[in-house]
Design brief:
- The protein has about 100 residues and is α+β, with helices and mostly antiparallel strands.
- It has 2 helices and 8 strands; from the N terminus they run E-E-E-H-E-E-E-E-E-H.
- It has a 5-stranded antiparallel sheet.
- A hairpin with a 2-residue loop joins strand 6 and strand 7.
- The longest helix has 8 residues.
- The chain starts with 8 loop residues before the first strand and ends in a 6-residue tail after the last helix.
């Protein structure tokens, strides 16, 4: 069992019934689904951007087209998640 600080997490990748939590110094394989982790982790820190990826918002280097750069990794943005990524870039104004 390892304790991981939320600030150290770069992204989380789904691997069937497991997930790989990628941090700055190491990565960890956890026996949990991405959906379950999404429900447990704070939405203020993490954003689901693809059926197989959830990213740490504060770790975004840049967003270009359908990819988000996190550290040295380009994470794809899924079609059904584009709106939430757009809201991250330019939140909709409420009238």
């Amino acid at each position: 069992m390892y304790r991981v600080n939320l600030e150290d997490v770069l992204y989380i990748e789904a691997l069937d019934d497991y997930a790989r939590v990628v941090c700055r110094q190491a990565s960890y394989l956890v026996n949990d689904t991405l959906k379950s982790l999404q429900e447990q982790l704070p939405a203020s820190h993490f954003l689901r951007v693809h059926k197989s990826y959830m990213i740490a918002k504060q770790q975004i280097v840049f967003i270009e087209g359908n990819y988000i750069r996190i550290g040295e990794k380009d994470i794809p943005v899924g079609a059904s998640y584009r709106e939430s990524v757009q809201d991250l870039i330019a939140p909709k104004r409420k009238p």
